Amino acid sequence: MRRLQSTRLQSQWGEAINRLELWTQNPWRRLSLLAIALLSGFLLGSAVTSVAGVLSQMDPVASLIVVLGTEFTLRRVRRSGGSWTLPEQLLDLSRIGFLYGLFLEAFKLI
Q1: What number of other Cβ atoms are within 10 A of residue 106's Cβ?
Q2: How confident is the model at residue 57 (pLDDT cuts 50, 70, 90)?
Q3: CA dihedral defined by 60, 65, 66, 67, rounded to 10 degrees?
Q4: Residue 91 and residue 71: Cα distance in Å, rounded?
Q5: Over 7-62, what HEC string results?
Q6: Looking at residues 46-71, what average pLDDT do you find?
Q7: Which residues contact 23 (CB under 8 A, 6 or more apart)?
Q8: Nearest to 87 by CA among 39, 26, 20, 8
Q9: CB-CB contact of 41 with 91 (8 Å)
Q10: What angle do CA 81, 96, 10 make, to 5 degrees?
Q11: Domain-by-domain residue ranges, the chain?
Q12: Residue 38 pLDDT greater than 90, yes or no
């Protein structure tokens, strides 16, 4: 199997992740970045349910599809054992915020 040449975009993306890892060595910076990921996921979860409601789509089906998509994405990224890297933590906390936003919108309907 031939290995393709890495592009400038791939190398810049790798460097950006490394720079972010170095920047978050300070615990307060890391915590604030994780909190932003959690709140962004919550905002996205609330927005998805609002858009599905405005479009008169079936909210439970749309929510199920989105939840399954986020769960499969995290399972695909998180194959190896050991400690969590920063991108994995950001993805997991945004997923938790997203699910919390979906559940909160569901409780508003009751």
Answers
A1: 13
A2: low
A3: 80
A4: 10
A5: CHHHHHHHHHHHHHHHHCCCHHHHHHHHHHHHHHHHHHHHHHHHHHHHCCCCHHHH
A6: 76
A7: 29
A8: 20
A9: no
A10: 60
A11: 8-109
A12: yes
